[in-house]
From TrEMBL:
Belongs to the polysaccharide lyase 9 family. It comes from Polaromonas hydrogenivorans. It comes from the Bacteria. This is Choice-of-anchor Q domain-containing protein. The lineage of its organism: Bacteria, Pseudomonadati, Pseudomonadota, Betaproteobacteria, Burkholderiales. Signal peptide: none annotated. Residues 63-94 have a biased composition (Low complexity). Keywords: Calcium, Lyase, Metal-binding, Secreted, Signal. It is found in: Secreted.
């Protein structure tokens, strides 16, 4: 049997007004031949569960083709160092602690047992991520041990194209960030060429935090992370918010923000001004699962050339995918919507499917091989966009066990029409479980490869 994924979240859906910041209302057994070290840990939080593996391989290679994925959030983590993989029929997380790098000038370590007066070595780690962020330089990797870090993080040092700065949770989702009581953004990465990998961000204890993780420095990424319960206690107004956000700022030239292999849910409740993932520049949004939020994935403001590929988006109050590209208000003269590629996504059971404004598009957008089904309105596209739509079946994707609010299994059944129906162009080389793509004649649609 296929490993089940369990994610349980409850949300109340209502309609909400549109705003320039957002949009109107909006699996075959896992077989991977390269698991070196795996361990089982059970993590459960707020009734949401999901599975994951291949963390050791991901940490060793640090490439996009070894993205570690899914886990099931629980209050405890159990790890092992035996070269076996444990699979059970109960909600589990396969994770591996990998704090094995030798202390050097290019590595710093953070642990809840540490002190910021320490040198930040593996034997004497820092206590806070903020401290490590203050001493990094291009090429540095910050290793963060499991535990809860009650801090608001702002990283400002720039890496370079050949020497990126990396912040890595040594156990996937094991390092949990909870915000300060007055925080707006829980993690803000102002420095460019920065990668944030494998963290959990939990905003359930804050009434002010409206953004989970925010990228403002160019050429940066968030990978394999879990962001949840952001803005659920905040007011629903035009200030909006997001679980993950890439914001270059209007008129600026920063670019290339990537969101890969993340799970985002319960962002803003049913408020349409809140988004699971919000992207306002160039880059990619791949292999993500987004659900139970105001909106799913939003490309707005100055966004262009964003590749939104192989995501599974369901149960959001408003639109599953919304695309824009407007500098201010949405009018036909100021919306340079161009270069977006929306391929291989499952958009299911949302307030809306795919929506874009009536604007002066140049015909360079592409909406292909998406499975859009059981949304209140599947398509709401401008006339020009309709000419760019192809192979978009409106059929049931046939999840193994669909539950709208989470807690189901969102892998594909063997009879799913999404199997072998995706495009290879810009498709990720692995799925959300780390399973290589394709496994059949072609890439499957959605975040999971059957």
């Amino acid at each position: 049997m296929q490993k089940p994924t369990a994610l349980a979240i409850r949300t109340t859906l209502i309609k909400s007004p549109a705003h320039p910041f957002s949009s109107p209302r909006i699996s075959r057994t896992l077989r991977s031949a390269a698991i070196l070290v795996a361990a089982t840990s059970t993590l459960t939080a707020f009734g949401a569960t999901e599975y994951g593996n291949r963390w050791q391989r991901h940490r060793n290679t640090q490439t996009a083709t070894t993205t570690t994925t899914t886990a099931t959030p629980t209050p405890t983590t159990t790890t092992t160092t035996t070269p076996t993989t444990t699979t059970t029929a109960t909600p589990t997380t396969t994770t591996t602690a990998t704090t094995t790098a030798t202390a050097s000038a290019n590595n710093y370590y953070v642990a809840t047992t540490g002190s910021d007066s320490n040198p930040g070595t593996q034997a004497a780690p820092f206590r806070t991520i903020k401290k490590a962020a203050s001493v990094v330089k291009p090429g540095t990797t910050v290793h963060v041990a499991p535990g809860t870090y009650a801090e608001t993080i702002t990283t400002t040092v720039n890496g370079t194209a050949s020497a990126r700065i990396r912040y890595v949770s040594d156990t996937k989702w094991g390092a949990k960030i909870v915000p300060a009581s007055t925080a707006e953004s829980m993690w803000k990465a102002d420095g460019g060429y920065t990668d944030i990998d494998g963290f959990q961000v939990d905003g359930s204890g804050s009434s002010t935090a409206t953004i989970g993780m925010r990228l403002t420095g160019g050429n940066s990424s968030i990978k394999n992370s879990w962001v949840h319960h952001v803005g659920v206690n905040a007011q629903c107004n035009s200030n909006g918010g997001a679980g993950m956000l890439a914001d270059q700022g209007r008129g600026q030239t920063f670019s290339n923000y990537d969101f890969t292999g993340n799970t985002v849910h319960d962002v803003g409740g049913s408020c349409g001004w809140f988004h699971g993932i919000y992207h306002s520049s160039t880059g990619t949004v791949k292999n993500n699962m987004v659900y139970a939020s105001g909106q799913g994935i939003n490309m707005g403001h100055d966004s262009h050339n964003v590749k939104v590929v192989n995501n599974t988006i369901f149960g959001n109050a408003n639109y599953g995918i919304w695309y824009g590209g407007c500098t201010e208000a949405y009018t036909s003269s100021n919306c340079p919507i161009s270069g977006h590629e929306v391929h291989n996504n499952i958009i299911y059971d949302n307030g809306g499917g795919i929506q874009g404004p009536i604007a002066s598009e140049d015909g360079s957008n592409s909406f292909k091989n998406n499975l859009v089904y059981r949304n209140t309105r599947n398509f709401d596209l401008s006339p020009n966009s309709l000419n760019q739509v192809s192979s978009m079946p409106s059929v049931d994707p046939q999840f193994t066990n669909y539950i709208r609010t989470g807690g189901g299994n969102y892998h594909l059944k063997s009879t799913s029409p999404a199997i072998d129906k995706g495009l290879a162009t810009n498709a990720p080389l692995i799925d959300l479980d780390g399973t290589p793509r394709p496994r059949g004649a072609a890439v499957d649609i959605g975040a999971y490869e059957y």
